Amino acid sequence: MAEQTPHQNVTFESAGREAHGYLAVPEDGTGPGxxxxxxxxxxxxxxxxxxxxxxxxxxxALAPDLFGGRVTHDADEAGQMMSELPAxxxxxxxxxxxxxxxxxxxxxxxxxxxxxxxMGGGFxxxxxxxxxDKVSAAVPFYGVGQxxxxxxxxxxxxxxxxxxxxDSMYPADQARAQEEQIRRESGADVVFxxxxxxxxxxxxxxxxxxxxxxxxxxxxxxxxxxxxxxxx
Length: 232
Prior knowledge:
One of its GO terms (molecular function) is carboxymethylenebutenolidase activity. This is Carboxymethylenebutenolidase. InterPro entries: AB_hydrolase_fold, Dienelactn_hydro, Dienelactone_hydrolase-like. It comes from Zhihengliuella flava. With 232 residues, the protein is an alpha/beta fold. It has a single domain (7-230), classed as Alpha/Beta hydrolase fold, catalytic domain (Rossmann fold, 3-Layer(aba) Sandwich). 36% of the residues lie in helices and 25% in strands. The chain is built from six helices and eight strands, in the order βββαβααβαββαβα. Strands 1-2-4-3-5-6-7-8 form an eight-stranded mixed sheet, sandwiched between helices. It is globular, with a radius of gyration of 16 Å. The relative contact order is 0.14. The model has no long low-confidence stretch (mean pLDDT 93).
């Protein structure tokens, strides 16, 4: 049986290679599975905290390390690290993470949910489009376009997006066009919410000062309720 340590670093196989991540398990030892996809800063303490918060709500949360242990707080370096991650490599790692999570005996759901921020918001959609009915809920927060698939015909997950009206990195009009494309091509249940905030408004460790507590709480409550409703 899977080890019931509440918080741990884990390794798993991904396309024949070893991958790494951070796993958070509820106190009672079981729950539905959720993939947490990092921002361009790497697998930071903030992303680990997101996994811990999900575990506190009853989810088994896995945050895969897409940058192989690299973490930065410099925007230029973060942009460089993101640019060096091919979309197909990120998708491969996330596919392995999905299979690993679904194989764990402490995961009670037949599907996983996926939630991601910034760069991770794009990869959430890539994962859902790639994995079909293995992913039942996809929650992108202000995705910047990295990893975003060209089309969504294979996506079956319900999608709930969270985007900022003042976001210059991924403007609201682009997000609205993406929402319509997903709905048109997949036929899935798609709802995007828009907030009077800037990029990364949910990150309470954001060095740019964009954190917006009220909007962040509203988005988090919506997102976790959505995951609870759809990940079975």
